[in-house]
Specification:
The complex is a heterodimer of chains A (about 325) and B (about 350). Chain A is an alpha/beta fold. Chain A contains eleven helices and twelve strands. Classes of the chains: A alpha/beta (about 325), B mainly alpha (about 350).
């Protein structure tokens, strides 16, 4: 059984005639101990999808219109409040983009980690356990660091504290929402290495949200590429990077700056992600697609398994 | 060739905690510190009023109606207190400068209870002889020592401010936090209620609320009633401000992070959002204490507050309503000076706290 199965998730912002569909029929699975990357441009629904796993998108303004999110076989969208609170942190933990903003500025970091322990492992809510966690995430001199305030730590250290908090309850799934975007490149590499290492040691699954395809190659077992609220390609990471099937994935990979070669200009995907509620008819990538055909605007293409384990939402993938 | 002097090693210092930074900034503000020191002294004295006061608040001396202030004077190497005799005219007194008694410290006098618990009879100073009274601030129309009553009154007037603030700010913070966190209909209902309370002129509200309590209550009941009335009016403005701050704080990522850890809504409000408003709340509380002190003064001044013979700064001022009294016995205004000093000290301290906390950087 998969740890997480998202089936045809549909989420609106607002309701009635003004409802805007932010997530439109997203389906994917995460197996035990697997790392899945969710890739896409800003505003394509990655974060909303990830927050939905613990039903963290506030309702209202959001509105779960359809679909199922099965975590350990239980549908998160149907859970009562108390069960929901026990899986939050207990089964699925989050690490956010801005470590400085995700830590409460008025409490010492040790107390914040302890609070996570109190919620899910009350008998282990001790300083020793906090120090052990801080050591686990590679914070030097954890004995004195537990008395630090968040603002006294660097961004990388703050993110390590966030990871320690997320790990405190020994979750089965760690959702990392662009955990390295706010950090500089060397720290980025350290944090990713840490996540990779922790995954091996603790055997947890990771859902990593990123718009950095470089990370995907290092970390992911499988990749889901999202565009305008839909998954356009779902594939094992190595094959996707070697040979992307969807024109959007291809365009994303071309947009990665390369050191080799003679490119003077960075290549970019022309146009912008369409705004929610203003999607073009048919394929949502059509207006920006290099291989667009007239029938692309007729109807939204299905996500089809074209090779074993490889799904793509484009009928013309062979012509790419 | 000259060698460069060795570079001294820089010692790593532990970073200052927010409270240490706050304290360091506050210390630089002399006026605020002065206000703080005055308040500490006032509260300490009020705490041990029975010991510092030479007499009990209800000790009546039939020979001392409207007695003017009597200060000990230096005679040789001793402080002495002269005896007074009735002089010519109504409530006129003549000092017998050749008939004195030495002023003693830690002298045995009337019974009182230290901290309202421990029975004691030692007073800081006094003559030990009722014929030689020490009236530092004179006596009132019943021959009671104004200074002693001022100290006993401080117990009531100063504590009403603190307890009232604790009560109304707790209510205001929790209700404001709930209002700002849940928004929507909850918010609308709570905010309209706040506006309703704030739109009624405070004095009318106070007096009409007072009318709902039965007459003839004991002093401690009246005391509790005053706190309840003032807090009932006071929480609304606090709730509005906290609600506004919560509206912005609820969008912060640490709120989402706390939710993602499985915290309940109420705990997110109490443990994560409200502590982030403390730097504002502490300042606002300091600046609001005078409102409660003055509220008690107003109620007692109007005769619906603390009842005689108990002393409060408000009901002591009631005696000073009469212009003839004021002209002839200006020492009856001493509680007014005490109120003035206290309110000013709170405002100075509050201003300094605000500068030191710099709530704008929240």
């Amino acid at each position: 059984m998969n740890l997480l199965e998202i089936k045809n998730l549909k989420l609106d912002f607002g309701s009635g005639a003004e409802a805007l569909r932010a997530v439109d029929g997203v389906s994917f699975n995460i197996g035990v101990g697997e790392t899945v990357c969710l890739v896409g441009e800003s505003g394509c629904g990655k974060t909303v999808t990830a927050l939905s796993i613990a039903r963290l998108v506030p309702v209202p303004p959001a509105n779960y219109v359809g679909g199922e999110i099965l975590l350990n076989g239980r549908d998160v969208l149907k859970m009562a409040g108390s069960e929901l609170r026990s899986i939050r942190g207990g089964v699925v933990s989050y690490v956010f983009q801005e470590p400085g903003a995700a830590l409460n500025p008025v409490f010492r970091v040790g107390n914040q980690i302890k609070e996570s322990l109190k919620l899910h492992k009350p008998d282990k809510a001790t300083n020793e356990e906090v120090i052990r966690l801080l050591k686990l995430v590679g914070i030097p001199a954890p004995e004195s660091r537990i008395r630090s305030y968040p603002f006294e730590l660097s961004g990388g250290m703050q993110q390590r504290v966030m990871i320690a908090m997320a790990l405190a309850s020994e979750p089965k799934l760690l959702v990392a929402d662009e955990p390295t975007t706010a950090l500089d490149v060397t720290i980025q590499a350290q944090i990713l290495e840490l996540l990779h290492d922790l995954k091996q040691r603790l055997g947890m699954a990771i859902l990593l949200i990123t718009h950095n395809l470089g990370i995907v190659g290092d970390m992911a077992d499988r990749v889901a590429v999202m565009y305008a609220g839909q998954i356009v390609e779902l594939s094992p990471a190595k094959e996707l990077l070697r040979h992307p099937l969807h024109p959007y994935t291809k365009a994303l990979m071309n947009a990665v700056p390369k050191l080799a070669g003679d490119a003077d200009r960075l290549s970019a995907i022309p146009g912008n992600v369409p705004r929610i509620g203003n999607f073009p008819p048919g394929c949502r990538f059509a207006p920006r697609c290099p291989i667009v055909k007239t029938e692309c605007s007729d109807k939204i293409p299905e996500l089809v398994e074209v090779e074993p384990g490889r799904f793509v939402r484009c009928p013309f993938w062979k012509t790419l | 060739m000259e060698t460069a002097p060795p570079i001294p090693a820089i010692e790593a210092k532990a970073p200052l905690s927010p409270w240490q930074l706050f304290w360091r900034r506050l210390k630089q503000r002399r006026i605020a510190m002065a206000g703080g020191v005055i308040l500490i002294v006032l509260y300490l004295v009020a705490l041990v009023a029975g010991f510092v006061a030479p007499y009990r608040y209800d000790r009546i001396d039939n020979n001392s109606f409207f007695h003017p202030p009597v200060w000990p004077r230096l005679q040789g190497f001793r402080l002495v207190v002269p005896r007074s005799e009735p002089g010519n005219g109504v409530f006129a007194y003549r000092e017998m400068s050749n008939d004195t008694r030495p002023l003693h410290f830690f002298v045995r006098g009337g019974q009182y209870k230290l901290f309202s618990l421990i029975p004691a009879s030692i007073h800081l100073f006094g003559t030990g002889d009722d014929n030689y009274p020490v009236y530092l601030l004179g006596a009132d129309q019943f021959g009671r020592d104004v200074f002693s009553r001022l100290l006993y009154g401080a117990q009531i007037s100063l504590s009403i401010g603190v307890i009232g603030i604790l009560l109304s700010f707790s209510i205001g913070m929790i209700i404001g936090g709930i209002s700002g966190y849940f928004v929507g209909a909850t918010d609308t209902v709570i905010m309209r209620l706040c506006e309703l309370i704030m739109s009624i002129p405070a004095l009318y509200l106070i007096i009409s609320l007072r009318a709902t309590f039965p007459p003839g209550m004991s002093s401690s009941q009246v005391y509790a009633m005053i706190i309840i009335i003032l807090s009932f009016i006071g929480w609304a403005s606090m709730a509005r401000v906290i609600r506004g701050m919560t509206l912005s704080l609820r969008e912060q990522q640490f709120v989402l992070a706390a939710r993602a850890l499985g915290q309940s809504h109420l705990k997110v409000i109490v443990r994560h959002i409200l502590p982030n408003t403390f730097s504002y709340v502490i300042v606002a509380a300091t600046l609001s204490v005078p409102y409660y002190i003055l509220g008690e003064v107003v109620l007692s001044f109007l005769g619906v507050g603390i009842q005689e013979p108990s002393a409060s700064w408000g009901n002591m001022l009631t005696a000073a309503q009469n212009t003839e009294y004021l002209r002839n016995y200006p020492w009856l205004l001493a509680p007014g000076a005490a109120i003035f000093i206290t309110v000013l000290a709170f405002n100075f301290l509050g201003d300094g706290l605000r500068d030191a906390a710099d709530t704008k950087s929240l």
